[in-house]
Amino acid sequence: MKSWDNITKIAFSVNEGKSSAVDLVKESLKRINEASEYDAIISLTKDRALERAKMIDDGVSQGQNMGRLAGVPFIAKDNFLTFGGETTAASNILKGFNAPYQASAIEKLEAEGAIVVAKANLDAFAHGASTENSDFMITKNPHDKTRVPGGSSGGSAASVVLGLAPFSIGTDTGGSIRQPAAFSGCVGLKPTYGLVSRSGVVAMASSTDCIGPMTKTVGEASLILDIMSGRDPLDSTTIEKDTLGYIGADSDLKGKKIGLVKEYFDDSLNSEIKDSIDELIVKLKSAGAEIKDVSLPILPSALAVYYILCPAEVSSNLSRYDGQRFGYSYEGAKDLNESYAESRARGFGREAKRRIIIGTYVLSSGYYDAYYKKAQLVRTKIVNDFNDAFRSVDFLLGPVAPTQAFKIGEKSNDPLAMYLSDVMTVAPNLAGISSITIPIDMKNNLPVAVQLMAAQKHDRSLLGAARKVEELA
Question: Which of 92, 189, 175 has the alpha carbon at shortest distance from 133?
Fold first, then answer.
């Protein structure tokens, strides 16, 4: 399928009246239909998308500038509240839910002329690393339909690589943007925690949830972040954006110190991924970067910490889905207790139930101190170790996952094996730092990617360095 033009070029052409927003939306919808076998899309927002496109074309005809994303179609992960269609978070318990308001990130993108054309598939409530936990369908990898696209933002990643729209947006709680971007072969950005508002996004684990773009290039990710970022009165955890913005950051690596995370290069790492990263390191050195080994001894504990804290927050956040106020409600209940029990038993999928049970357990009386409180103490140690590392280096570099995209069904019956897919991505979420996935190679007809990390609020410099990595790769 023919690749889309650069996002900036598309918007410029629409604002100049040389391209039609309506035609762009129709083209995106056509591509979605033609690629339906990949099951990347849950639903379309066709009618509203065409209405917005016509409004943009009318504005251009009246001499108005319709924004930096004028007429650019995009796809939102289906845990973003949007108008024009259902928001399900890929769960039966939310099937039929129409949002009364839109996510702040969607509002900011629309204010610059972007148009939501569809909602992407995901692991239900973003619980997963393969997009096999959706209650509706299993998304296929764009390079090999027998393999997963990664998760939980698998539909968003596949959409970009398949060319269904110029960009998509996803959520990253423990790697859910970066890992599918690596498996599918696009750029995936997890900004500093709080840089993009979580308002209007179905919550998973509120202390680690991040919103970010999935794009063809680092430059496009910079533009989307520049638009979505900044304080939001609807989300008290949001922070100010960089005064210089996120576009056009210095990409010169000369004299920059890049630390290779020792703990990520152990025996579990696929040799082909290691070989690709070794080749990149040679190029980074030739570009003037200083490469040094860095150890974060606490990292082996990060996955255990994550899978205590995350289910605890999941248990709390999913308590609102009780069959009473919105979403699925079991109609055969004889009383309120049966309504609660049956609505949740029938509405939630297996993985959501597993995480609710684990989370409720670690928060329960007698176990809170042993598990949850101890995990929070170790999380502080993780934050401190990253802070210490960034005192000696500008960036940290490592793989995104131990393997390339695995086969559909390969890990679906082994939760622990599936959770290990997150082993290299959860720590940046626990520490709240910025991190980006950049494709660097193809091996066995599957993408290989690298993860570049920077300290909190250093997203601008991270994007500049990532642009150079992209260029060298």
Answer: 92
Phi, psi of 360 (to 5 degrees): -65, -35
Domain chopping of the chain, boundaries: 1-473
The one-letter amino acid at 178? R
Question: In the numeric block, which tokens belong to residue 72?
Answer: 């650019």
For tokens 């993408």, name the residue: 447
- Residue 215's identity, in one-letter code, is T
Residues annotated as catalytic (active site), given as ranges: 77, 152, 176
Residue 232: left if φ>0, alpha if ψ -120 to 50, beta else—which one?
A: beta
Backbone angles phi, psi at 247, to 5 degrees: -105, 140
Torsion 223-224-228-230 (CA) sign: negative
CA distance 341 to 330: 9
Q: What is the pTM of this model?
A: 0.97
High-pLDDT (> 70) share of the chain, %? 100
Read off the pLDDT of residues 372-382 as tens digits, 9 standing for 90 and up. Answer: 999 999 999 99
Task: Assess contact for 281 and 453: CB atoms under 8 A.
Answer: no
DSSP states along 338-386: HHHHHHHHHHS-HHHHHHHHHHHHHHSTTTIIIIIIHHHHHHHHHHHHH
- For the chain, what's the residue count? 473
CA separation (Å) from 83 to 24, 40, 102, 107, 331?
A: 19, 20, 6, 10, 27
Which tokens hold the place of 306? 């994550």
Close Cβ partners of 396 (under 8 Å, ≥ 6 residues apart): 258, 259, 260, 261, 294, 386, 389, 390, 452, 453, 454
Q: Which helix (H) or strand (E) holds 169?
A: strand 167-172
φ, ψ for residue 391 (rounded to 5)?
Answer: -80, -20
Q: What is the mean pLDDT of the chain?
A: 97
- Cis peptide bond prior to 152, omega within 30° of 0: yes
pLDDT at 105 exceeding the cut of 80: yes
Round to whole Å and give the CA distance between 290 and 276. Answer: 18
Quote the CA–CA distance of 55 and 72 in Å, as a whole number.
13
CA–CA dist 47, 118 (Å, integer): 11
- What's the CA gap between 202 and 211, in Å, rounded? 11
Residue 321 has pLDDT above 80, yes or no: yes
pLDDT score, position 1: 74
Helix spans in 131-247 (H): 154-162, 178-184, 218-228
Q: Residue 325 pLDDT > 90, yes or no? A: no
Whether CATH 3.40.50.620 fits 1-473: no
Q: Give yes or no for residue 292 having a pLDDT over 90.
A: yes
The pair of three-digit structure tokens given for residue 272, joined into one six-digit string: 């082909």
Name residue, tokens 């060319």: 163
At 199, list the tokens: 């308002």
Task: Answer for the pair 87, 124: CB distance below 8 angstroms, yes or no.
Answer: no
**Shortest CA distance to 81 belongs to which of 95, 101, 107, 96?**
101
pLDDT reading at 328 higher than 80: yes
